[in-house]
Amino acid sequence: MIKGLHYVRKKTKAGDVWHVYAWRGGPSIARREGGRKPVLTAAELKLAISAIEQAKAPEQTSLSSLIRDWEQSPEWKALGEGTKKTWGSQIKKITDKWGTTPLTVWNDPRMKARVVSWRDSQAAAPRGADLGVMVLRELLKFGLLRGRVLTNVAVGIPTLYRGGKRAEIVWTEEDIQRFTAEAMKTEAIHIVDGLRLCALTGLRREDLVTVTQDDVYDHAIVKRALKVSKGKRRTATMPRIPELDALLAELATRKRKEGVRTLLVNSHGKSWSGDGFGGSFNRIRDAGDIVYVDPDTGERRKKHLHDVRGTFATRLILAGLNDAEVAEVMGWSVEQVSGIRRTYVDQSRVVVAMGERISQGGVNRPVNREEATRN
Fold first, then answer.
1. Which of 177, 227, 329, 330 has the fewest CB atoms within 10 Å, counting from its CB?
2. What span, in angstroms and rounded, lies between the C-alpha atoms of 175 and 285?
3. Which of 224, 209, 186, 211 is nearest to 276 (CA)?
4. Do 135 and 31 sit in the same domain of this protein?
5. What would the pLDDT profile of 282-312 be if each residue is shown by its tens digit?
6. Cβ(162)–Cβ(240) under 8 Å?
7. Dihedral pair phi/psi, residue 31, rounded to 5°
8. pTM higher than 0.85, yes or no?
9. Could you tell me if 201 and 292 lie in one domain?
10. Do 155 and 186 reside in the same domain of the chain?
11. Last residue of a domain, one of 32, 56, 80
């Protein structure tokens, strides 16, 4: 029996008449004559269910209706599963806060100030606050494209999280050695495998745990990325350098369950999930106290698995690729690669050149930065 059905019995000269409504105050579902409470037919029950579902559906003029349509759109379906999961929690927050607001309200430029206030109310968790604004911006972008709103008030709102731009953060060889030493205290070689593979391929986490033996070719690893970037699902191609070949040979010796073809496996011989590997990785990182110290403020920030991609970028630079070529491989901007080159490659080469000059008794000859970085 459907909960909430409302039965009303009226007495007439001809006898009792029953009226059945989908809910108190809702639409009429059935009418019966007779003294007994009526039993609804299958067709009447279907009519009641349809009425209830329509009542629950958001109005076409509310933000909730736009959210519903977005989640059924090709744009949403094209997102990776990890992105859908992450954005889904923010969509719930947006629905709780703004779901009943009419879409016409979002055409008012003054809504930008209200969105900023909403962001500021979550300042204790700045990354989450920024993500909420970003998801709202993508939602309104969808609405603008469909003609449901006339402007996107979430555009141009600055982020709160200072660590949002992490181009200057990479894992150094010292970090990798410290992580490895910490992991080996618990014989967690399978987690070290992931760190090493990331440092030699630059793969994002979801691609790192899903890349398989079938993606390994004679001269490169070719992986169709799970993450959609700028509306496209790019293919990552990583050349097989000697260090990577040696690691692939090691990974092939790991015990694995029958049918498991991912390069990385956990201690049970099964493929990692993204969250499973990420959580295990972070526990070892925290135990090893692997952090980035801001040279200007002294602020300490935990280094992320994603920052290992910067290590791969430095290796590409050292291998002789120019900034545009590295940017193409990494899916980054040329400016981002240039920043890593200046911070981690050029400076190191200048220091090495100084050391060589001192050891050769050439202290009086100044070091030419361009000459040093060419060597």
1. 177
2. 9
3. 209
4. no
5. 999 999 999 988 776 677 889 999 899 888 8
6. no
7. -140, 130
8. no
9. yes
10. no
11. 56
